[in-house]
Write a structure and sequence with these properties.
By secondary structure, the protein is an alpha/beta fold. It folds into 2 domains: 102 residues, no CATH class; 190 residues, Glycerol-3-phosphate (1)-acyltransferase (3-Layer(aba) Sandwich), CATH 3.40.1130.10. It is built from 13 helices and 9 strands. The strands form 2 sheets. A 7-stranded mixed sheet has the order 1-9-8-2-5-3-4, with helices on both faces. A two-stranded antiparallel ribbon has the order 6-7. It starts with a helix and ends with a helix.
Length: 300
Protein backbone atom coordinates (compact mmCIF):
# COMPACT_ATOMS: atom_id res chain seq x y z
CA UNK A 1 0.00 0.00 0.00
CA UNK A 2 1.38 3.42 -0.98
CA UNK A 3 1.82 6.35 1.38
CA UNK A 4 -0.87 8.29 -0.50
CA UNK A 5 -3.39 5.45 -0.27
CA UNK A 6 -2.78 5.16 3.48
CA UNK A 7 -3.39 8.90 3.97
CA UNK A 8 -6.60 8.75 1.91
CA UNK A 9 -7.91 5.56 3.52
CA UNK A 10 -10.73 5.55 6.05
CA UNK A 11 -8.20 4.72 8.78
CA UNK A 12 -5.89 7.57 7.76
CA UNK A 13 -8.72 10.09 7.60
CA UNK A 14 -10.10 8.82 10.93
CA UNK A 15 -6.75 9.40 12.63
CA UNK A 16 -6.45 12.90 11.18
CA UNK A 17 -10.01 13.75 12.17
CA UNK A 18 -9.56 12.47 15.72
CA UNK A 19 -6.31 14.39 16.20
CA UNK A 20 -7.61 17.60 14.62
CA UNK A 21 -10.79 17.66 16.72
CA UNK A 22 -8.99 17.14 20.00
CA UNK A 23 -5.93 19.36 19.76
CA UNK A 24 -5.33 23.09 19.93
CA UNK A 25 -4.34 24.98 16.80
CA UNK A 26 -0.82 25.49 18.18
CA UNK A 27 -0.35 21.75 18.71
CA UNK A 28 -2.14 20.94 15.46
CA UNK A 29 0.19 23.06 13.37
CA UNK A 30 3.20 21.45 15.04
CA UNK A 31 1.82 18.00 14.29
CA UNK A 32 1.08 18.99 10.68
CA UNK A 33 4.64 20.25 10.27
CA UNK A 34 5.99 17.02 11.79
CA UNK A 35 3.82 14.92 9.45
CA UNK A 36 5.11 16.91 6.46
CA UNK A 37 8.72 16.26 7.51
CA UNK A 38 8.03 12.53 7.82
CA UNK A 39 6.40 12.45 4.36
CA UNK A 40 9.38 14.28 2.83
CA UNK A 41 11.72 11.60 4.22
CA UNK A 42 10.29 9.31 1.55
CA UNK A 43 11.31 11.16 -1.63
CA UNK A 44 10.52 8.19 -3.87
CA UNK A 45 6.90 7.98 -2.67
CA UNK A 46 4.16 8.68 -5.22
CA UNK A 47 2.97 11.67 -3.20
CA UNK A 48 6.37 13.38 -3.08
CA UNK A 49 7.28 12.51 -6.66
CA UNK A 50 3.95 13.80 -7.99
CA UNK A 51 4.16 17.01 -5.99
CA UNK A 52 7.72 17.48 -7.19
CA UNK A 53 6.82 17.02 -10.88
CA UNK A 54 3.84 19.37 -10.59
CA UNK A 55 5.87 22.08 -8.87
CA UNK A 56 8.61 21.77 -11.48
CA UNK A 57 6.18 22.33 -14.37
CA UNK A 58 4.45 25.34 -12.82
CA UNK A 59 7.85 26.92 -12.14
CA UNK A 60 8.48 26.90 -15.87
CA UNK A 61 10.92 23.99 -15.48
CA UNK A 62 13.41 26.46 -14.01
CA UNK A 63 13.97 25.18 -10.45
CA UNK A 64 17.19 23.41 -9.55
CA UNK A 65 17.12 20.17 -7.58
CA UNK A 66 17.77 22.06 -4.30
CA UNK A 67 15.16 24.73 -5.06
CA UNK A 68 12.65 22.06 -6.00
CA UNK A 69 13.31 20.12 -2.79
CA UNK A 70 12.55 23.25 -0.74
CA UNK A 71 9.43 24.09 -2.74
CA UNK A 72 8.07 20.56 -2.32
CA UNK A 73 8.72 20.61 1.43
CA UNK A 74 6.94 23.95 1.80
CA UNK A 75 4.03 22.74 -0.32
CA UNK A 76 3.51 19.53 1.65
CA UNK A 77 3.74 21.44 4.94
CA UNK A 78 1.15 23.96 3.73
CA UNK A 79 -1.10 21.12 2.57
CA UNK A 80 -0.82 19.33 5.92
CA UNK A 81 -1.72 22.53 7.78
CA UNK A 82 -4.75 23.10 5.55
CA UNK A 83 -5.98 19.53 6.14
CA UNK A 84 -5.61 20.03 9.88
CA UNK A 85 -7.54 23.31 9.72
CA UNK A 86 -10.38 21.78 7.77
CA UNK A 87 -10.96 18.94 10.21
CA UNK A 88 -10.31 21.17 13.23
CA UNK A 89 -12.89 23.78 12.19
CA UNK A 90 -15.32 21.69 10.14
CA UNK A 91 -18.11 21.76 12.77
CA UNK A 92 -17.21 25.14 14.30
CA UNK A 93 -19.32 27.31 12.02
CA UNK A 94 -18.58 30.68 13.71
CA UNK A 95 -14.85 29.92 13.44
CA UNK A 96 -15.19 29.13 9.73
CA UNK A 97 -16.98 32.41 9.09
CA UNK A 98 -14.21 34.21 10.94
CA UNK A 99 -11.46 32.25 9.19
CA UNK A 100 -12.68 32.69 5.60
CA UNK A 101 -12.86 36.22 4.23
CA UNK A 102 -15.21 37.15 1.39
CA UNK A 103 -13.60 39.82 -0.77
CA UNK A 104 -15.97 42.51 -2.11
CA UNK A 105 -15.58 41.02 -5.61
CA UNK A 106 -16.67 37.55 -4.49
CA UNK A 107 -19.49 38.91 -2.33
CA UNK A 108 -20.88 40.83 -5.32
CA UNK A 109 -20.39 37.93 -7.69
CA UNK A 110 -22.29 35.48 -5.47
CA UNK A 111 -25.11 37.96 -4.96
CA UNK A 112 -25.31 38.79 -8.67
CA UNK A 113 -25.24 35.17 -9.81
CA UNK A 114 -27.80 34.00 -7.22
CA UNK A 115 -31.23 34.33 -8.80
CA UNK A 116 -29.94 35.87 -12.05
CA UNK A 117 -31.75 33.23 -14.11
CA UNK A 118 -28.54 31.51 -15.23
CA UNK A 119 -26.68 28.59 -13.77
CA UNK A 120 -23.14 29.02 -12.47
CA UNK A 121 -20.41 26.39 -12.50
CA UNK A 122 -17.68 27.11 -9.97
CA UNK A 123 -14.38 25.46 -10.93
CA UNK A 124 -12.00 25.06 -8.00
CA UNK A 125 -8.25 24.54 -8.30
CA UNK A 126 -6.79 22.64 -5.35
CA UNK A 127 -5.45 25.78 -3.76
CA UNK A 128 -5.30 26.92 -0.14
CA UNK A 129 -8.29 25.43 1.66
CA UNK A 130 -11.02 24.79 -0.88
CA UNK A 131 -13.00 22.68 1.61
CA UNK A 132 -13.24 25.50 4.16
CA UNK A 133 -14.12 27.92 1.39
CA UNK A 134 -17.02 25.75 0.26
CA UNK A 135 -18.35 25.45 3.80
CA UNK A 136 -18.10 29.21 4.25
CA UNK A 137 -20.13 29.83 1.09
CA UNK A 138 -22.78 27.35 2.28
CA UNK A 139 -22.87 29.02 5.70
CA UNK A 140 -23.69 32.29 3.95
CA UNK A 141 -26.87 30.66 2.70
CA UNK A 142 -25.89 29.48 -0.78
CA UNK A 143 -26.74 25.92 -1.80
CA UNK A 144 -23.96 24.11 -3.65
CA UNK A 145 -24.26 20.96 -5.76
CA UNK A 146 -20.74 19.53 -5.69
CA UNK A 147 -19.49 16.97 -8.22
CA UNK A 148 -16.49 15.17 -6.74
CA UNK A 149 -13.91 12.82 -8.24
CA UNK A 150 -15.73 9.75 -9.67
CA UNK A 151 -13.61 6.86 -8.36
CA UNK A 152 -14.20 6.78 -4.63
CA UNK A 153 -12.50 4.47 -2.13
CA UNK A 154 -13.97 4.10 1.36
CA UNK A 155 -11.87 7.01 2.62
CA UNK A 156 -13.06 9.44 -0.02
CA UNK A 157 -16.66 8.30 0.38
CA UNK A 158 -16.43 8.99 4.12
CA UNK A 159 -14.87 12.40 3.47
CA UNK A 160 -17.80 13.32 1.23
CA UNK A 161 -20.27 12.13 3.88
CA UNK A 162 -18.56 14.37 6.46
CA UNK A 163 -18.78 17.29 4.06
CA UNK A 164 -22.48 16.83 3.25
CA UNK A 165 -23.87 19.41 5.61
CA UNK A 166 -25.01 23.04 5.69
CA UNK A 167 -26.27 23.18 2.10
CA UNK A 168 -23.51 21.08 0.54
CA UNK A 169 -24.83 18.29 -1.70
CA UNK A 170 -21.69 16.32 -2.65
CA UNK A 171 -21.87 13.48 -5.15
CA UNK A 172 -19.29 11.56 -7.19
CA UNK A 173 -19.21 12.35 -10.90
CA UNK A 174 -21.51 9.93 -12.75
CA UNK A 175 -23.97 10.03 -15.65
CA UNK A 176 -26.93 10.25 -13.28
CA UNK A 177 -25.38 12.92 -11.05
CA UNK A 178 -24.30 14.93 -14.10
CA UNK A 179 -27.89 14.83 -15.32
CA UNK A 180 -29.13 16.14 -11.98
CA UNK A 181 -26.45 18.82 -11.94
CA UNK A 182 -27.57 20.03 -15.36
CA UNK A 183 -31.19 20.21 -14.19
CA UNK A 184 -30.03 22.23 -11.17
CA UNK A 185 -28.09 24.61 -13.43
CA UNK A 186 -31.14 25.15 -15.65
CA UNK A 187 -32.95 26.31 -12.52
CA UNK A 188 -30.22 28.88 -11.89
CA UNK A 189 -28.33 26.83 -9.28
CA UNK A 190 -24.66 26.68 -8.30
CA UNK A 191 -22.62 23.62 -9.26
CA UNK A 192 -19.05 23.13 -8.00
CA UNK A 193 -16.38 20.81 -9.35
CA UNK A 194 -12.60 20.50 -9.34
CA UNK A 195 -10.28 21.85 -11.97
CA UNK A 196 -7.15 19.80 -12.27
CA UNK A 197 -7.10 16.42 -10.58
CA UNK A 198 -5.82 14.21 -13.44
CA UNK A 199 -8.07 11.56 -14.92
CA UNK A 200 -6.98 7.98 -15.53
CA UNK A 201 -8.73 7.95 -18.91
CA UNK A 202 -9.79 10.82 -21.14
CA UNK A 203 -10.08 11.81 -24.80
CA UNK A 204 -9.19 15.44 -24.14
CA UNK A 205 -5.84 16.98 -23.29
CA UNK A 206 -6.16 20.77 -23.02
CA UNK A 207 -2.97 22.71 -22.44
CA UNK A 208 -2.34 23.61 -18.81
CA UNK A 209 0.80 25.61 -18.06
CA UNK A 210 1.68 25.10 -21.71
CA UNK A 211 1.56 21.29 -21.65
CA UNK A 212 -1.26 18.86 -22.57
CA UNK A 213 -2.84 17.52 -19.39
CA UNK A 214 -5.45 14.79 -18.68
CA UNK A 215 -7.56 17.13 -16.55
CA UNK A 216 -11.38 17.20 -16.25
CA UNK A 217 -13.29 18.92 -19.06
CA UNK A 218 -16.89 17.75 -18.56
CA UNK A 219 -17.87 21.19 -17.25
CA UNK A 220 -17.41 22.66 -20.75
CA UNK A 221 -20.19 20.64 -22.33
CA UNK A 222 -22.30 21.06 -19.19
CA UNK A 223 -22.00 24.85 -19.47
CA UNK A 224 -22.83 24.82 -23.19
CA UNK A 225 -25.86 22.57 -22.73
CA UNK A 226 -27.31 24.63 -19.87
CA UNK A 227 -26.19 28.11 -21.02
CA UNK A 228 -24.35 28.53 -17.72
CA UNK A 229 -21.39 30.73 -16.85
CA UNK A 230 -18.16 29.32 -15.42
CA UNK A 231 -16.32 31.02 -12.56
CA UNK A 232 -12.90 29.92 -11.29
CA UNK A 233 -12.94 30.16 -7.48
CA UNK A 234 -10.09 29.68 -4.99
CA UNK A 235 -9.71 29.97 -1.22
CA UNK A 236 -6.19 31.34 -0.60
CA UNK A 237 -4.30 31.73 2.65
CA UNK A 238 -3.21 35.30 3.32
CA UNK A 239 -0.28 36.66 5.32
CA UNK A 240 -2.39 36.74 8.51
CA UNK A 241 -3.25 33.03 8.50
CA UNK A 242 -6.81 33.52 7.25
CA UNK A 243 -8.27 32.57 3.88
CA UNK A 244 -9.61 34.86 1.19
CA UNK A 245 -11.99 33.77 -1.55
CA UNK A 246 -10.73 34.86 -4.95
CA UNK A 247 -12.53 34.49 -8.28
CA UNK A 248 -12.36 35.10 -12.00
CA UNK A 249 -15.03 36.95 -13.91
CA UNK A 250 -17.84 34.78 -15.35
CA UNK A 251 -16.64 32.90 -18.45
CA UNK A 252 -19.04 31.80 -21.19
CA UNK A 253 -18.17 28.88 -23.41
CA UNK A 254 -17.93 29.33 -27.18
CA UNK A 255 -19.42 26.77 -29.61
CA UNK A 256 -17.06 25.19 -32.17
CA UNK A 257 -17.78 23.08 -35.23
CA UNK A 258 -15.11 20.60 -34.18
CA UNK A 259 -15.98 18.77 -30.92
CA UNK A 260 -12.33 18.28 -29.91
CA UNK A 261 -11.58 21.97 -30.33
CA UNK A 262 -14.78 22.92 -28.53
CA UNK A 263 -13.83 21.00 -25.41
CA UNK A 264 -10.10 21.70 -25.33
CA UNK A 265 -10.05 25.37 -26.37
CA UNK A 266 -12.83 26.30 -23.94
CA UNK A 267 -11.20 24.32 -21.13
CA UNK A 268 -7.94 26.18 -21.79
CA UNK A 269 -9.69 29.52 -21.19
CA UNK A 270 -10.84 28.25 -17.80
CA UNK A 271 -7.48 26.67 -16.97
CA UNK A 272 -5.72 29.94 -17.82
CA UNK A 273 -7.53 31.60 -14.90
CA UNK A 274 -6.45 28.77 -12.61
CA UNK A 275 -2.86 29.13 -13.85
CA UNK A 276 -2.74 32.73 -12.66
CA UNK A 277 -3.90 31.76 -9.16
CA UNK A 278 -1.55 28.76 -8.92
CA UNK A 279 1.48 30.63 -10.26
CA UNK A 280 0.94 33.39 -7.70
CA UNK A 281 0.61 30.84 -4.84
CA UNK A 282 2.66 27.76 -5.82
CA UNK A 283 3.22 26.35 -2.32
CA UNK A 284 -0.55 26.48 -1.68
CA UNK A 285 -1.23 24.15 -4.61
CA UNK A 286 -2.24 20.91 -2.91
CA UNK A 287 -2.12 18.66 -5.95
CA UNK A 288 -0.45 15.36 -5.03
CA UNK A 289 -1.34 13.47 -8.21
CA UNK A 290 0.80 13.78 -11.38
CA UNK A 291 -0.94 16.27 -13.66
CA UNK A 292 1.78 15.83 -16.31
CA UNK A 293 3.06 12.21 -16.08
CA UNK A 294 6.02 12.79 -18.48
CA UNK A 295 7.39 15.39 -16.05
CA UNK A 296 8.12 12.59 -13.57
CA UNK A 297 11.01 11.56 -15.83
CA UNK A 298 12.11 15.07 -16.74
CA UNK A 299 12.46 16.90 -13.42
CA UNK A 300 15.90 17.32 -11.80
Amino acid sequence: MSLLSIINSRLGIGIVLGVAKNTSTKTGYKLADFAAKVICKYPKSTLVQSTRANQWVISGQKLSKEELDLQVEQTIRMTAQSIFEFYHYMHNYPAILEKVIFTPKVTKLLADRDGCGEGTIFIGPHLGNFDLGGRAIALHGYKLFVLSYPQLNSGYAWQNKLRQEIGLDIRPMSTENMREAKAYLKEGGFVVTGMERPLDRTNYYPKFFGRPAPVPTSYVRMALQTHSAIVVLACLRNAHGKYELSSSEPIYMDPYKNAQDEIERNAERVLAEGEKMIAANPTQWAMTYPVWPPALEEMP
